[in-house]
Amino acid sequence: MKITVIGAGNMGAAFVKQLRRAGHQVSVTARDAAKAAQVAAANPGAIAVPAAGAAEGADAVVLATGYGDAVAALRSVGNLAGKVVIDITNPLTADYMGLTVGHDTSAAEEIAKAVTGAEIVKAFNTVFAQVLGEGADFGNGRKVEVFVASDSERAKQTARAIAESIGFAVVDAGPLKNARYLEPVAGLNIYLGYGAGLGTGIAPVWIRKA
Question: CA-CA distances (angstroms) from residue 150 to 25, 116, 174?
Fold first, then answer.
């Protein structure tokens, strides 16, 4: 697939790394063009591009910015009508220990309202950058799961295909409004990793009886 990654931070860099390893055609853009260039240079075959027009021709756009920057970042990359946008953001407080929206809305729903026409799918928001960068295989047959929520079946299938191509298992988490559940799960994961000292080599999974 042709995939545009918006953001060159820890998550953006991890996405570029894994997507290139899986053979995807990857472009990366960021507010800091030098940082985008650095990420592309570290992953042969990836290219750094300016924001304007970065979404053109992409099969999917990965939104790897902070929630506060999300809408402006998406608007900067061109026309997103009909584009699949994978929203990995979480609406975190400044200390990362709480959420700024919830219960009756979610970051994903607010982004969808602001960027009309795009097909938003919540995914990867419960995965630490370190886990994404190192890979989904936790040994002994255990794979990290990616939960996908969207009102667009095409967006779900695109996110599923991308996640599976880089080694993750996928759980269909229903419609986009279920991001209201997924974002708090991410908050708990962050607390356990940092607040409770479990570290970033952790991930939430759903277990099921055979």
Answer: 24, 14, 7
Side chain identity at 58, as an amino acid letter?
A
Give the torsion through C-alpha atoms of 101, 143, 205, 173, to 10 deg.
Answer: 60
Q: Is the pLDDT of residue 210 over 90?
A: no
Strand ranges (E), the chain: 2-6, 25-29, 47-48, 60-63, 84-87, 119-122, 137-139, 142-143, 145-150, 169-172
Residue boundaries of the structural domains of the chain: 2-195
16-73 pLDDT, tens digit per residue, is 999 999 999 999 999 999 999 999 999 999 999 999 999 999 999 999 999 999 999 9
Q: Please give the structure tokens belonging to residue 66.
A: 């902070």
What pTM does this model have?
A: 0.97
Q: Name the CATH topology of 2-195.
A: Rossmann fold (3.40.50)
C-alpha dist (Å) from residue 95 to 26, 98, 175? 32, 7, 29
